[in-house]
Amino acid sequence: MEFKIKHKDSRARVCEIKTSHSSFTTPIFMPVGTAACVKSLDFLDLSLILDAKIILANTYHLYLRPGADIVAKFKGLHGFTGFSRSFLTDSGGFQAFSLSKNSKHKEEGIEFKSHIDGSRHFFTPKSVLDTQYLLNSDIMMVLDDLVALPSDEKRVILSVQRTIKWAKESINYHKERQSKGLNLDNNIFAIIQGGTSYEQRKLCALELCELSFDGLAIGGLSVGEENALMYDTVEAVSEFIDENRPRYLMGVGTPEDLVECVERGVDMFDCVMPTRNARNGTLFTNFGKINIKKAEFLRDERAIDEDCKCYTCKNFSRGYLHHLFRAKELTFFRLASLHNLHYYLSLVKAMQEAILKDSFSEFKKEFYAKRSLS
Protein backbone atom coordinates (compact mmCIF):
# COMPACT_ATOMS: atom_id res chain seq x y z
CA MET A 1 0.00 0.00 0.00
CA GLU A 2 1.20 3.48 -0.83
CA PHE A 3 0.28 6.43 1.39
CA LYS A 4 1.00 10.08 0.75
CA ILE A 5 -0.09 13.27 2.51
CA LYS A 6 -1.07 15.74 -0.21
CA HIS A 7 -2.09 18.77 1.86
CA LYS A 8 -2.87 19.83 5.43
CA ASP A 9 -5.11 22.58 6.76
CA SER A 10 -4.26 22.62 10.45
CA ARG A 11 -4.99 19.01 11.54
CA ALA A 12 -7.39 18.27 8.68
CA ARG A 13 -5.61 16.62 5.80
CA VAL A 14 -5.99 15.27 2.29
CA CYS A 15 -4.08 12.05 1.64
CA GLU A 16 -3.78 9.56 -1.18
CA ILE A 17 -3.97 5.81 -0.57
CA LYS A 18 -3.11 3.28 -3.25
CA THR A 19 -3.86 -0.43 -2.95
CA SER A 20 -3.42 -3.15 -5.56
CA HIS A 21 -7.02 -2.55 -6.71
CA SER A 22 -7.53 1.22 -6.62
CA SER A 23 -6.36 4.63 -5.52
CA PHE A 24 -8.51 6.98 -3.48
CA THR A 25 -8.27 10.33 -1.75
CA THR A 26 -9.07 10.99 1.89
CA PRO A 27 -11.09 12.03 3.78
CA ILE A 28 -13.03 8.99 2.60
CA PHE A 29 -16.29 7.35 3.63
CA MET A 30 -16.66 3.60 3.13
CA PRO A 31 -20.18 2.25 2.57
CA VAL A 32 -20.80 -0.83 4.70
CA GLY A 33 -21.34 -4.05 2.77
CA THR A 34 -21.65 -6.46 5.69
CA ALA A 35 -22.32 -9.65 3.71
CA ALA A 36 -20.38 -8.53 0.61
CA CYS A 37 -23.40 -6.42 -0.34
CA VAL A 38 -24.45 -2.89 0.57
CA LYS A 39 -28.09 -3.46 1.49
CA SER A 40 -30.51 -2.83 -1.40
CA LEU A 41 -27.70 -1.89 -3.84
CA ASP A 42 -25.52 -3.83 -6.25
CA PHE A 43 -21.95 -3.02 -7.13
CA LEU A 44 -22.93 -1.37 -10.41
CA ASP A 45 -24.88 1.12 -8.29
CA LEU A 46 -21.80 1.63 -6.16
CA SER A 47 -19.36 1.91 -9.06
CA LEU A 48 -21.32 3.64 -11.81
CA ILE A 49 -23.83 5.76 -9.90
CA LEU A 50 -22.11 6.51 -6.58
CA ASP A 51 -18.48 6.15 -7.68
CA ALA A 52 -17.57 4.62 -4.30
CA LYS A 53 -13.84 3.99 -4.05
CA ILE A 54 -13.70 1.48 -1.18
CA ILE A 55 -16.27 -0.75 0.54
CA LEU A 56 -16.24 -2.36 3.99
CA ALA A 57 -17.18 -6.04 4.29
CA ASN A 58 -17.57 -8.08 7.45
CA THR A 59 -15.23 -10.95 8.32
CA TYR A 60 -17.51 -12.46 10.98
CA HIS A 61 -20.57 -12.65 8.73
CA LEU A 62 -18.69 -13.88 5.66
CA TYR A 63 -16.85 -16.50 7.74
CA LEU A 64 -20.23 -17.91 8.80
CA ARG A 65 -21.99 -17.48 5.46
CA PRO A 66 -21.11 -18.40 2.74
CA GLY A 67 -17.68 -19.23 4.24
CA ALA A 68 -14.35 -17.65 3.36
CA ASP A 69 -13.35 -20.75 1.36
CA ILE A 70 -16.35 -20.21 -0.91
CA VAL A 71 -15.39 -16.56 -1.48
CA ALA A 72 -11.83 -17.68 -2.23
CA LYS A 73 -13.12 -19.93 -5.04
CA PHE A 74 -14.33 -16.75 -6.77
CA LYS A 75 -10.85 -15.21 -6.39
CA GLY A 76 -11.81 -13.27 -3.29
CA LEU A 77 -14.27 -10.49 -2.68
CA HIS A 78 -13.53 -8.71 -5.95
CA GLY A 79 -14.40 -11.70 -8.11
CA PHE A 80 -17.29 -12.74 -5.85
CA THR A 81 -19.04 -9.36 -5.95
CA GLY A 82 -17.90 -7.84 -9.22
CA PHE A 83 -16.58 -4.75 -7.41
CA SER A 84 -13.11 -4.12 -8.81
CA ARG A 85 -12.03 -1.41 -6.38
CA SER A 86 -10.75 -1.70 -2.81
CA PHE A 87 -12.24 -3.69 0.06
CA LEU A 88 -11.60 -3.25 3.77
CA THR A 89 -12.62 -6.09 6.07
CA ASP A 90 -13.06 -5.78 9.81
CA SER A 91 -11.87 -8.48 12.18
CA GLY A 92 -15.04 -9.62 13.92
CA GLY A 93 -14.17 -7.86 17.18
CA PHE A 94 -17.16 -5.55 16.91
CA GLN A 95 -19.52 -8.47 16.30
CA ALA A 96 -18.20 -10.13 19.45
CA PHE A 97 -19.14 -6.89 21.21
CA SER A 98 -22.53 -6.37 19.57
CA LEU A 99 -23.49 -10.05 19.93
CA SER A 100 -22.02 -10.26 23.43
CA LYS A 101 -24.68 -12.69 24.67
CA ASN A 102 -23.21 -15.22 22.24
CA SER A 103 -19.50 -14.53 22.83
CA LYS A 104 -16.82 -14.86 25.48
CA HIS A 105 -13.45 -13.10 25.48
CA LYS A 106 -10.41 -15.15 26.48
CA GLU A 107 -6.69 -14.47 26.52
CA GLU A 108 -6.16 -16.39 23.27
CA GLY A 109 -9.10 -14.92 21.38
CA ILE A 110 -12.89 -14.76 21.23
CA GLU A 111 -15.22 -17.72 21.55
CA PHE A 112 -18.67 -17.22 20.05
CA LYS A 113 -21.84 -19.01 19.11
CA SER A 114 -23.17 -18.44 15.61
CA HIS A 115 -26.27 -16.25 15.50
CA ILE A 116 -27.35 -18.32 12.46
CA ASP A 117 -27.31 -21.91 13.72
CA GLY A 118 -25.82 -21.86 17.22
CA SER A 119 -22.58 -23.58 16.19
CA ARG A 120 -19.49 -22.71 18.23
CA HIS A 121 -16.39 -21.01 16.84
CA PHE A 122 -13.18 -19.46 18.10
CA PHE A 123 -11.45 -16.41 16.60
CA THR A 124 -7.73 -15.88 17.27
CA PRO A 125 -5.44 -13.19 15.86
CA LYS A 126 -4.06 -15.70 13.34
CA SER A 127 -7.37 -17.30 12.36
CA VAL A 128 -8.96 -13.91 11.71
CA LEU A 129 -6.12 -13.05 9.32
CA ASP A 130 -6.38 -16.46 7.64
CA THR A 131 -10.05 -15.76 6.97
CA GLN A 132 -9.26 -12.35 5.53
CA TYR A 133 -6.47 -13.76 3.34
CA LEU A 134 -9.12 -16.00 1.75
CA LEU A 135 -11.39 -12.98 1.29
CA ASN A 136 -8.37 -11.21 -0.28
CA SER A 137 -9.32 -7.79 1.05
CA ASP A 138 -7.00 -4.87 0.42
CA ILE A 139 -7.06 -3.68 4.04
CA MET A 140 -7.54 -6.13 6.91
CA MET A 141 -8.27 -5.19 10.51
CA VAL A 142 -6.61 -7.22 13.24
CA LEU A 143 -8.49 -8.78 16.14
CA ASP A 144 -9.05 -6.41 19.08
CA ASP A 145 -10.88 -6.45 22.41
CA LEU A 146 -13.71 -3.92 22.33
CA VAL A 147 -15.68 -2.86 25.42
CA ALA A 148 -18.89 -0.90 25.85
CA LEU A 149 -18.83 2.56 27.37
CA PRO A 150 -18.98 3.50 30.13
CA SER A 151 -16.86 0.64 31.47
CA ASP A 152 -14.91 0.10 34.69
CA GLU A 153 -11.19 0.86 34.68
CA LYS A 154 -10.09 -2.76 35.12
CA ARG A 155 -11.99 -3.87 32.04
CA VAL A 156 -10.56 -1.01 29.94
CA ILE A 157 -7.02 -1.88 31.05
CA LEU A 158 -7.60 -5.54 30.21
CA SER A 159 -8.97 -4.52 26.81
CA VAL A 160 -5.82 -2.53 26.04
CA GLN A 161 -3.53 -5.33 27.20
CA ARG A 162 -5.30 -7.89 25.05
CA THR A 163 -5.50 -5.56 22.06
CA ILE A 164 -1.74 -4.91 22.17
CA LYS A 165 -0.97 -8.62 22.68
CA TRP A 166 -3.19 -9.67 19.78
CA ALA A 167 -1.81 -6.90 17.56
CA LYS A 168 1.75 -8.15 18.11
CA GLU A 169 0.71 -11.71 17.29
CA SER A 170 -1.03 -10.43 14.15
CA ILE A 171 1.84 -8.35 12.77
CA ASN A 172 4.37 -11.11 13.46
CA TYR A 173 2.20 -13.66 11.65
CA HIS A 174 1.55 -11.32 8.72
CA LYS A 175 5.23 -10.39 8.28
CA GLU A 176 6.23 -14.05 8.51
CA ARG A 177 3.87 -14.87 5.65
CA GLN A 178 5.06 -11.92 3.59
CA SER A 179 8.67 -13.01 4.07
CA LYS A 180 7.64 -16.21 2.24
CA GLY A 181 6.16 -14.19 -0.64
CA LEU A 182 2.55 -14.62 0.56
CA ASN A 183 -0.18 -11.96 0.91
CA LEU A 184 2.01 -9.16 -0.41
CA ASP A 185 -1.06 -7.19 -1.56
CA ASN A 186 -2.91 -7.50 1.75
CA ASN A 187 -2.39 -4.62 4.20
CA ILE A 188 -3.18 -4.71 7.90
CA PHE A 189 -4.32 -2.01 10.32
CA ALA A 190 -4.10 -2.14 14.10
CA ILE A 191 -6.91 -0.84 16.31
CA ILE A 192 -6.31 1.53 19.22
CA GLN A 193 -8.53 0.82 22.23
CA GLY A 194 -8.71 2.42 25.68
CA GLY A 195 -12.26 3.66 26.11
CA THR A 196 -12.27 7.34 27.02
CA SER A 197 -9.22 7.00 29.28
CA TYR A 198 -6.47 9.39 28.16
CA GLU A 199 -3.72 7.26 29.69
CA GLN A 200 -4.94 3.98 28.25
CA ARG A 201 -5.46 5.47 24.78
CA LYS A 202 -1.98 6.98 24.92
CA LEU A 203 -0.45 3.68 26.04
CA CYS A 204 -2.24 1.70 23.33
CA ALA A 205 -1.42 4.20 20.58
CA LEU A 206 2.25 4.44 21.45
CA GLU A 207 2.64 0.66 21.65
CA LEU A 208 0.92 0.06 18.31
CA CYS A 209 2.80 2.89 16.58
CA GLU A 210 6.03 1.02 17.34
CA LEU A 211 4.82 -1.86 15.15
CA SER A 212 4.96 -1.88 11.36
CA PHE A 213 1.25 -1.77 10.61
CA ASP A 214 0.15 -0.19 7.34
CA GLY A 215 -2.41 1.97 9.11
CA LEU A 216 -3.94 2.67 12.51
CA ALA A 217 -7.58 2.77 13.52
CA ILE A 218 -9.33 4.29 16.50
CA GLY A 219 -11.86 1.75 17.73
CA GLY A 220 -14.22 1.51 20.67
CA LEU A 221 -15.99 4.85 20.18
CA SER A 222 -19.62 5.66 19.38
CA VAL A 223 -20.54 2.78 21.69
CA GLY A 224 -22.45 4.68 24.37
CA GLU A 225 -20.36 7.74 25.23
CA GLU A 226 -21.45 11.35 24.62
CA ASN A 227 -20.38 12.96 21.35
CA ALA A 228 -18.23 15.60 23.05
CA LEU A 229 -16.33 12.87 24.88
CA MET A 230 -15.80 11.00 21.62
CA TYR A 231 -14.40 14.13 19.96
CA ASP A 232 -12.10 14.81 22.92
CA THR A 233 -10.83 11.23 22.78
CA VAL A 234 -10.15 11.41 19.04
CA GLU A 235 -8.32 14.69 19.48
CA ALA A 236 -6.23 13.34 22.35
CA VAL A 237 -5.27 10.03 20.72
CA SER A 238 -4.41 11.68 17.40
CA GLU A 239 -1.43 13.34 19.07
CA PHE A 240 0.13 9.92 19.61
CA ILE A 241 -0.47 8.50 16.12
CA ASP A 242 2.37 9.20 13.72
CA GLU A 243 1.13 11.10 10.70
CA ASN A 244 2.76 8.89 8.08
CA ARG A 245 0.01 6.27 8.12
CA PRO A 246 -3.77 6.42 7.48
CA ARG A 247 -6.01 7.12 10.48
CA TYR A 248 -9.34 5.32 10.49
CA LEU A 249 -12.18 6.04 12.93
CA MET A 250 -14.30 2.90 13.04
CA GLY A 251 -18.10 2.87 12.96
CA VAL A 252 -18.59 6.66 12.99
CA GLY A 253 -21.02 8.24 12.31
CA THR A 254 -23.31 11.24 11.70
CA PRO A 255 -22.41 13.96 9.19
CA GLU A 256 -21.49 16.15 12.15
CA ASP A 257 -19.18 13.41 13.47
CA LEU A 258 -17.37 13.26 10.14
CA VAL A 259 -16.81 17.02 10.01
CA GLU A 260 -15.64 17.21 13.63
CA CYS A 261 -13.26 14.27 13.29
CA VAL A 262 -11.79 15.30 9.95
CA GLU A 263 -10.94 18.55 11.71
CA ARG A 264 -9.09 16.41 14.28
CA GLY A 265 -7.02 14.58 11.67
CA VAL A 266 -9.06 11.46 10.80
CA ASP A 267 -8.79 10.14 7.22
CA MET A 268 -11.21 7.20 6.93
CA PHE A 269 -14.74 6.47 8.16
CA ASP A 270 -17.42 3.80 7.89
CA CYS A 271 -20.91 3.58 9.31
CA VAL A 272 -24.21 1.80 8.62
CA MET A 273 -26.07 5.04 9.39
CA PRO A 274 -26.73 6.28 5.82
CA THR A 275 -28.19 2.98 4.61
CA ARG A 276 -29.92 1.99 7.86
CA ASN A 277 -31.53 5.42 8.18
CA ALA A 278 -32.55 5.28 4.52
CA ARG A 279 -34.46 2.04 5.04
CA ASN A 280 -36.26 3.62 7.99
CA GLY A 281 -37.28 6.69 6.00
CA THR A 282 -34.71 9.19 7.32
CA LEU A 283 -32.91 11.10 4.58
CA PHE A 284 -29.85 13.31 4.97
CA THR A 285 -29.73 16.74 3.36
CA ASN A 286 -27.53 19.83 3.41
CA PHE A 287 -29.98 21.40 5.85
CA GLY A 288 -30.32 18.42 8.19
CA LYS A 289 -32.52 15.30 8.15
CA ILE A 290 -36.07 14.77 6.94
CA ASN A 291 -38.42 11.91 7.74
CA ILE A 292 -40.07 11.03 4.44
CA LYS A 293 -42.84 9.01 6.11
CA LYS A 294 -44.49 12.23 7.39
CA ALA A 295 -47.80 13.16 5.80
CA GLU A 296 -46.49 16.63 4.91
CA PHE A 297 -44.54 15.08 2.01
CA LEU A 298 -47.54 13.42 0.34
CA ARG A 299 -48.00 16.20 -2.23
CA ASP A 300 -44.45 17.56 -2.21
CA GLU A 301 -43.15 17.83 -5.77
CA ARG A 302 -39.64 18.88 -4.77
CA ALA A 303 -36.57 16.68 -4.68
CA ILE A 304 -35.33 15.46 -1.30
CA ASP A 305 -32.68 18.20 -1.43
CA GLU A 306 -32.89 20.72 -4.27
CA ASP A 307 -29.11 21.24 -4.07
CA CYS A 308 -28.41 17.53 -4.42
CA LYS A 309 -27.34 16.03 -7.74
CA CYS A 310 -27.81 12.35 -6.86
CA TYR A 311 -29.69 9.88 -9.06
CA THR A 312 -32.72 9.96 -6.77
CA CYS A 313 -32.99 13.74 -6.48
CA LYS A 314 -32.59 14.23 -10.24
CA ASN A 315 -35.40 11.80 -11.05
CA PHE A 316 -37.92 11.48 -8.21
CA SER A 317 -39.98 13.69 -5.90
CA ARG A 318 -40.49 13.66 -2.17
CA GLY A 319 -44.14 12.80 -2.84
CA TYR A 320 -43.21 9.70 -4.82
CA LEU A 321 -40.70 8.56 -2.20
CA HIS A 322 -43.29 9.11 0.52
CA HIS A 323 -45.70 6.92 -1.46
CA LEU A 324 -43.09 4.16 -1.95
CA PHE A 325 -42.29 4.11 1.75
CA ARG A 326 -45.94 4.02 2.79
CA ALA A 327 -46.70 1.32 0.22
CA LYS A 328 -43.71 -0.70 1.47
CA GLU A 329 -42.29 -0.89 -2.02
CA LEU A 330 -38.75 -2.32 -2.09
CA THR A 331 -37.72 0.29 -4.66
CA PHE A 332 -37.77 2.83 -1.83
CA PHE A 333 -34.80 1.15 -0.14
CA ARG A 334 -32.66 1.52 -3.25
CA LEU A 335 -33.59 5.12 -4.01
CA ALA A 336 -33.23 6.25 -0.41
CA SER A 337 -29.90 4.43 0.03
CA LEU A 338 -28.53 5.94 -3.18
CA HIS A 339 -29.42 9.40 -1.90
CA ASN A 340 -28.00 8.99 1.59
CA LEU A 341 -24.74 7.44 0.39
CA HIS A 342 -24.40 10.15 -2.26
CA TYR A 343 -24.80 12.72 0.51
CA TYR A 344 -22.03 11.12 2.61
CA LEU A 345 -19.67 10.67 -0.32
CA SER A 346 -20.29 14.26 -1.46
CA LEU A 347 -19.66 15.51 2.07
CA VAL A 348 -16.18 13.97 2.28
CA LYS A 349 -15.40 15.21 -1.24
CA ALA A 350 -16.42 18.73 -0.22
CA MET A 351 -14.13 18.47 2.79
CA GLN A 352 -11.25 17.38 0.54
CA GLU A 353 -11.78 20.46 -1.63
CA ALA A 354 -11.97 22.78 1.40
CA ILE A 355 -8.74 21.40 2.88
CA LEU A 356 -6.91 21.81 -0.43
CA LYS A 357 -8.03 25.47 -0.45
CA ASP A 358 -7.01 25.99 3.21
CA SER A 359 -10.63 26.88 3.94
CA PHE A 360 -11.78 24.03 6.17
CA SER A 361 -12.79 26.34 9.03
CA GLU A 362 -15.03 28.32 6.62
CA PHE A 363 -16.47 25.06 5.30
CA LYS A 364 -17.32 23.97 8.83
CA LYS A 365 -19.07 27.25 9.63
CA GLU A 366 -21.15 27.01 6.46
CA PHE A 367 -21.95 23.36 7.16
CA TYR A 368 -23.49 24.23 10.55
CA ALA A 369 -25.08 27.47 9.30
CA LYS A 370 -27.16 25.55 6.74
CA ARG A 371 -28.43 23.27 9.47
CA SER A 372 -29.45 26.19 11.66
CA LEU A 373 -31.83 27.42 8.92
CA SER A 374 -33.94 24.25 8.90
Automatic annotation (TrEMBL):
Enzyme class, spelled out: transferase
Domain tRNA-guanine(15) transglycosylase-like: 10-371
Binding sites annotated in the UniProt record for Zn(2+): 308, 310, 313, 339
Cofactor detail note: Binds 1 zinc ion per subunit.
Similarity section: Belongs to the queuine tRNA-ribosyltransferase family.
Purpose of the protein: Catalyzes the base-exchange of a guanine (G) residue with the queuine precursor 7-aminomethyl-7-deazaguanine (PreQ1) at position 34 (anticodon wobble position) in tRNAs with GU(N) anticodons (tRNA-Asp, -Asn, -His and -Tyr). Catalysis occurs through a double-displacement mechanism. The nucleophile active site attacks the C1' of nucleotide 34 to detach the guanine base from the RNA, forming a covalent enzyme-RNA intermediate. The proton acceptor active site deprotonates the incoming PreQ1, allowing a nucleophilic attack on the C1' of the ribose to form the product.
Oligomeric and partner information: Homodimer. Within each dimer, one monomer is responsible for RNA recognition and catalysis, while the other monomer binds to the replacement base PreQ1.
Protein name: Queuine tRNA-ribosyltransferase
